[in-house]
Amino acid sequence: MSCTLFFTAGAKGGSGKTTAAKFLITYLREHGELPLLMDLDDENHTLARFFPEALRINLHQEFAQDVVIEKALSGEHRFIVADLKAGTGHEVLKWFLALPFEELKGRGVRLVCLGSVTSAPDSVQSFLNWAAALSHHVDYVVFRNLKDGDNLYDYDQTRQALEFRGTYDPDHVTLEKLSPLYQTELEIRKLTITEVLGLTDHSSSEERIGPVLSPLLARARLRNYQRRIYEQLDHVRQRLFHSDGEAVEPLRGTAHG
Amino acid sequence: MPGKPYQSSLIPYEDEILSLRRQRPPMAFARIAELLKERHQVPIQRAAICKFVRRRARWRKKETQQNRATSKTWNTAQTRSSQPYSARTGPKTGAVLPNTAGIEPRRQRLGWQNEKPASREKMLTTFTPSNEYNLTRLTPEEAAAYVEQLKRERDKNGG
């Protein structure tokens, strides 16, 4: 069975790499997939906080990252989402560069690099560092994270970023700014939007998750927010898996919202 | 004023010092001072090395400009700022360079903005990996023109 390995890239912290991974995971799950989750952030374990079932990888051990490829080759999972920590340096990048890309491709493993850029110049710079090294060996999905502002000047109007976009043809997903009130509640309570939407007005007091997220209108806003992202992921899915007939089987489900 | 003009005692070690500063991360001036003392028995303050490096950088810049001006092959219509960053400076020492081994075209897919993409073998030529910001910001007009240029190149290369 073929496997698509999504991995986050970029050394800048707080640019939304894990947020991007979270949306991708819930999107895949809503389509009936059971992606293997791997948390390679051995400092914060952010992904594992939201998804306790995520496999924690200790990067301090030599060749610890090998397990990612082993899992991909095992054929047990159609999708793997690996979240790398901010500040992931040249060591991990060099490990990526040493991968036998062609052999992996021949064995049905496809790599998709998830980047996240904000209005912070460093987020673009650090992502392009990875893109320049990985070049055409992987596909790219770039999350345009508007949390710090709508103007992503360094991604939209720098020579290098434009060349990256023209050369590697990345897919884009825009993450609109979510109200800080909601964002904080979600972070504190370690909840994804999908989990919040699963709650009802009639939830018991134990299930209620505070004054902000439980009310009907708040959930309606979150549902719309998530739907807009999922619609973009639909488009990404089309491009990644259907445009040239090369890819692997489509996702199992089709409905969401 | 008679007498020998001042010359830095660090001149014989210039290449060594610069190579230590070029590596990523660059070696601290204090550490370089220690190394010079260990290897060459040159007692020197770290501030003096810092001043020396800065002064030499200024000289090198002047020399480069002069060389460019005298070069017969240089296209005078091409300004420095129009040169790719990588062409101006070359890859930095210690930077992770693109992996060019086993290059083959990336799969064909709908192109950027639904147009057929350029050759997938192409590497980023205007970008040099760096831990510091080295992107070239463009005005909206320049950005639009550059996108057009990329499209033309893509078409020229057979998309």
Structure overview:
The complex is a heterodimer of chains A (257) and B (159). Chain A is of the alpha/beta class. Chain A has a seven-stranded parallel β-sheet, with helices on both faces. Chain A has helices at 17-30, 46-50, 66-74, 90-97, 101-106, 121-134, 153-156, 159-168, 180-189, 193-197, 216-241, and strands at 3-9, 36-40, 55-56, 79-84, 109-117, 139-145, 171-175. In chain A, 43% of the residues lie in helices and 16% in strands. In chain A, strand 5 (109-117), helix 6 (121-134) and strand 6 (139-145) form a beta-alpha-beta unit. With 159 residues, chain B is an all-alpha fold. The N and C termini of chain B lie far apart (68 Å). Chain B contains five helices and no strands. In chain B, helix 2 (29-40) crosses helix 3. Chain B is elongated. Among the domains of chain B are: 8-62; 109-159, no CATH class. Chain B has helices spanning 14-22, 29-40, 46-70, 85-89, 140-156. Classes of the chains: A alpha/beta (257), B mainly alpha (159). At the A-B interface, helix 4, helix 6, helix 7 and helix 8 of A face helix 5 of B.
Shape estimate of chain B: elongated
> What is the CATH superfamily classification of chain A?
P-loop containing nucleotide triphosphate hydrolases
Rg on CA atoms of chain B, Å? 22 Å
- Mean pLDDT of chain B equals 69
* Biggest sheet overview of chain A: 7 strands, parallel
* Rg over alpha carbons of chain A: 18 Å
- Order of the strands making up the biggest sheet of chain A: 3-2-4-1-5-6-7
Low-pLDDT segments of chain B: 71-94, 100-120
Class per helix and strand makeup of chain A: alpha/beta
